[in-house]
Amino acid sequence: MENPLREGLVTRHAAEPCVVVIFGATGDLTRRKLVPALCNLAHEGQLPAGFAVVGFARRPKSNAEFRAELLDGVKKFSRFNPINPAVWDSFAQGIFYHQAEFSDATGYDRLNQFLRQLDKDRGTAGNRLFYLATAPPDFTTIIRQLGAHGLGRGTASRIIVEKPFGRSLATAHELNTELATVFDENQVYRIDHYLGKETVQNILALRFANEIFEPLWNQKYIDHVQITVSESLGVETRGSYYEKSGALRDMVQNHMMQLLALVGMEPPAGLAANDIRDEKVKVLRSIRPIEPGHISQSSVRGQYAAGSLAGKAVVGYHEELNVAPDSRTETFVALKLFIDNWRWASVPFYLRHGKRLPKQTAEIAIQFKAPPAVLFAAETTAPVQPNVLVLRIQPDEGIAIRMNAKVPGTALHIEPVKMDFRYGGSFGARSPEAYERLLHDALAGDATLFTRSDEVEASWRLMDAVLTGWQTAGRPAAYEAGTWGPPEADAFIAKDGRTWRRP
Question: Would you state the pLDDT for residue 107?
């Protein structure tokens, strides 16, 4: 179903007519992200003729009620404002609602009949994209029902699975096994919305389409890499979920390990999905395992206490709704990882993520080694700073380079300056939302930006060791909300003679 058309250096993927079946269609993900993204694609003429959406959920609802609720979400969350009424009317004609319990076999019988009718009415020719927008405990039930009703292997079907992909290596393997009983691996699209962000996609272009970077992308020139994902929000109403997850499972195991793999991978043989994913897996398998007995040398975990953000007092994690008063769940993680291959030998990768930090940001900072001091040492008042290449993922997607320049004047005074590229300013258009790109690719059968089963399990193998080490490592270190994490995290990187970059 993949149909790439190339014009020069531009690759376009044409999607065939298809039905998207969203399980859990009355939830926030559908209203806030999925349907607004699909409607945006419709605005830009990127949906195939005959495209349809079928919402599958438990609550009784008519097609008209479902469409009205989705229109409200599109008006609030689409990047096209106001919405074009003609586009919505055309798009909404292909939206339908199917009420059934996820475990009800007769509901899938009726779904199968309805999909066949849509094939006749809208020319979808048996092409289905199933989207699991439900809670993880429902995944197995839905997958088994799809298999029992002939909606998986052997048909023109694909399935998108939302994270989390398990809670450990064992549970991730169980989920992958369940999927493999119904779908071939090339039909499975494990979605990580970070991979849909423009800057993340641009990592490969930055490295391999610019000769000035790739020759320096190794241990000879790079001192270390910092990957930071900070959130100003606390757990809010997600206490029940977060108590079972924590920062490592919620953010590091998936989003941040994907960023590390893209930064660290070797040049792929081509741009086909498996060429790129093969190289990412090699990176994950090359990461030095963290021995549980050495967990304190390789990680810091923290938990936010009461503090203030933007002048407003906020409660600590223990005071959040549905959080145990004696909880040891981490809301902050710092890791030091090493990729044991030729390119990255002895180069530390520092990963940092936390909630209730001063600002919402995500970035990758590649710090190069400092230049030799012999040339300017006698003439300048301060050491020449090392170059830093920063890839900003949010909020302002772009790339910046810190370089050194002479300050105007008679004295030889060198200071760092910044060259800054921003997507909005350079291309004059707002970047598509991550879900737009990912849904478009899934419709076209392009799995490049989706996670393969061996990637998931390789990442979990590393994280399991961290979680095991923490079981006997005492309580998380406390940090005041509105700060950049516990003092232990600063000491953690300072012992290597380095400091955290402030985004």
Answer: 97
